[in-house]
Amino acid sequence: MSWDCGLRYMFSVPPALQQGSMCILHDKEDLSRLEMVQRLAKDGCRFLQHQSKGPERTSEPQSDEAVRVCLREWGRDVLVLQRVSSEPALAASARGGGREEARNKRYVVVSGTPEKILEHLLNDLALDDDRGTRQGKESDTLLDDFLLTYPVFMSTSDLCEALLGHYCNKQCRGKEDRKEALERKQKVLHLVSQWMSLCRDFLREDEQVKLFMKTLCRYVLEDLYEHPALETDVRELQKLYMLHRRHTVDEYSPQRKSKVLFHQLSVKENGLQSRITQKETKEVLCRVYITVDSYLSMRVHAAVVAQELLQAVAERMDVPLGELTLEAVTYPGGRLLLQPQDRVFSDCLRPVGRLHICRSDLGEVLYPFTDSSELQLRAARMLSLNTWDVAVALTTFDWTLFDSVHEQELVYFTFSRPASSRHIVALELLLQRCNEVQLWVMTEVLLCPTLCKRVQLIKKFIKIAAHCKAQRNLNCFFAIIMGLNAAAVSRLSHTWEKIPGKFKKLFSELETLTDPSLNHKAYRDSFKKMKAPKIPFLPLLLKDITFIHEGNKTFHDNLVNFEKLHMIADAVRLIRLCQKDRTGNGISQKSSTDVRAYFDSLHIIDNQQTLFELSHRLEPRA
Which of 47, 331, 439, 492 has its C-alpha lying 20 to 30 A from 503's C-alpha? Predict the structure, then answer.
């Protein structure tokens, strides 16, 4: 390995570097914050201190934003860092704390290879004597950025392999003392702890992660004899796996502890069925088409079978169960008649195909129900429901979906990583819910046959939107306002003329929050003032992340553009902020039984042409 041009300072955008030039460092204290550089120095890499001439010494010092360091291996750049200073450094300098000032000078990643980014991240971690990890704000941010965005540039299996390599680090065993080895292992274990805590249940069922955790547990247990201080980390690993010791630690040798832990791991594996049972009881949305262009959006559990779904549809449509069958239209064009005990959802919580309700007396040829005048002219059931209860029901269900959305889902969604569909189920369900609420508002208004009832219905929807805003459910709030503003509804001039003035004024005030001018400034300002927990308007957040993605390259000269990933991580962290203090929402009351039953199966027309036909039927063109 050639290190002749190992480090260079760049005082602006990095210029083209000539191979073979000497490494020049301007400040001795810079080296104290680069453990990587110190290791190179131990290996014999020499550095020259630059002696500036008179005029240059009196010039203004370069700001931290302008100071960058480039690391090269085998003649190519592998890591670009930028120096940052924390605020406590100034106070420490005033007290004469030079060492503390040096500690507060850190280097953040600008770009680099995945391996070197991970290596710098581990080097930058600092451990206190009490085993607590002491990190500055920059280090915390770097770690969080890496854990949120690593799927962009490396797979989970690659990360597991790299972490195991850093934990063992056989290449350095002959060059580091016992204390350095312990610190290296503790840093890896701290990163793993942060990773598992961040991902929660997001990767718990990933086979690669399960194998990685087993292997890491074995390595840690093998190291207990040489490094007793790792005992704390063993306990932390057990907590991550929700393992419970049957005996105290001190009663057993490392070998015995290994057997006990592997026994507990086996018990955990045998408990997989219980986890699957919990997963199957999760409620999801299911679309069941009852006409060519309309469907019932049904709230069911993930393990629902065809018989249960048919029973719910028959009750909703007031049709005898024996007259109905359920078929799945697969995307290639095939049709599958589902038997009573067939599962409706696959393992990834996706339906086996587009579900249609058909009449069972048609023999071999199955057709969906045709449109019926009775269905289109039905009385609006919404008029009998309390608006606050409706808003509570909408918000409660939205929270069940939003609370299961993980920040990393937005990263997978934006970058469309291979096989990412299983990682964005919760996010897709919430986006689907937003679209369905908008269509549901339009459907309810356009299926209301009389003018006076349509006026009452629109008044109710305006009040429901205001209640959703009060309950800090901006996702549903936007959906209702967009449904009322849709062309098929807004063109009903005779209906809107009958809306009382105070409701028109309230609707106008609510509309200002959805104003897209100045990059949705009205919404952003209002949303910032809302305390957590709150549900943001997800399509706008995804648009912000997409703009960052499309406007910046992911790789620069085969190096990961970590500055771009930092911006994306900053955006997706909004999910974590909004989910904070869920119990303090204050909307804990339950809606009535009638309201919950109504929202368990919403009738929705998803064909825009049909919606316009209904609109023109209610109020023909002049």
Answer: 439
Tokens of 508: 């106008």
Where do runs of H (alpha helix) occur along 125-172?
137-149, 156-168
Strands 294-301 and 324-329: unpaired
Residue 236, H or E segment: helix 231-240
CATH number at residue 358: 3.10.20.90
CATH number, residue 518: 1.10.840.10
Strand 76-85 versus strand 68-73 pairing type: antiparallel
Question: pTM for the whole thing?
Answer: 0.79
The answer, yes or no, to whether the previous bond of 516 is cis (omega within 30 of 0) is no
Give the tokens for residue 435.
């679209």
- Confidence tier at 24 by pLDDT (50, 70, 90): very low
- Write out the H or E segment, with its range, that includes residue 431: helix 425-446
Q: Is the dihedral of CA 196, 201, 207, 213 positive or negative?
A: positive
Q: Could you tell me if 425 and 408 lie in one domain? A: yes
Question: Containing domain of residue 44, as a range?
Answer: 7-273
Same domain, 45 and 152: yes
Taking the C-alpha atoms of residue 256 and residue 261, their distance in angstroms, rounded to an integer, is 9
CB-based contact 201:154 (threshold 8 Å): no
State whether the Cα torsion 328-334-338-344 is positive or negative. Answer: negative
297: nearest Cα among 386, 429, 387: 429
CA distance 192 to 99: 29
DSSP state of 344: S
Answer with the one of 236, 256, 273 that is the final residue of a domain: 273
Averaged confidence pLDDT in the chain: 76
Contact 252, 225 (CB under 8 A): no
Indicate which CATH number applies to the domain containing 78: 1.20.870.10
Question: Total domain count for the chain?
Answer: 3
Strands of 354-400, DSSP E: 354-359
How many other C-beta atoms are found inside a 10 Å radius of the C-beta of residue 551? 9
Give the DSSP H or E segment for 297.
strand 294-301
| CA torsion angle 181 186 192 197 (round to 10) | 180
User: Alpha-carbon distance 132 to 229, whole Å?
Assistant: 12
Identify the three-state secondary structure at position 110. Answer: strand
Give SS3 for 106: strand
Q: In what order do the strands lie in the sheet with 76-85?
A: 7-10, 68-73, 76-85, 105-112, 559-561, 555-556
Instruction: Quickly list DSSP for 488-516.
Output: HHHT-HHHHHTS-HHHHHHHHHHHHHT--
What tokens were used for 432?
């689907």
Segment 344-402, tens digit of pLDDT: 887 667 777 888 888 877 544 445 554 444 544 455 578 888 999 999 999 999 998 99
Residue range 130-147, pLDDT digits in tens: 444 444 556 678 899 999
Q: Do 189 and 223 meet the contact criterion of CB atoms below 8 Å apart? A: no
User: By C-alpha distance, which of 187, 67, 32 is closest to 119?
Assistant: 187
> What are the DSSP E strand ranges found in 94-239?
105-112
Reported as a pLDDT band with limits 50, 70 and 90, residue 582 is: low
Instruction: Return the exposure string of 603-613: e unless at least 16 CB atoms fall within 10 Å of the residue's CB, then b.
Output: bbbbeeebbee
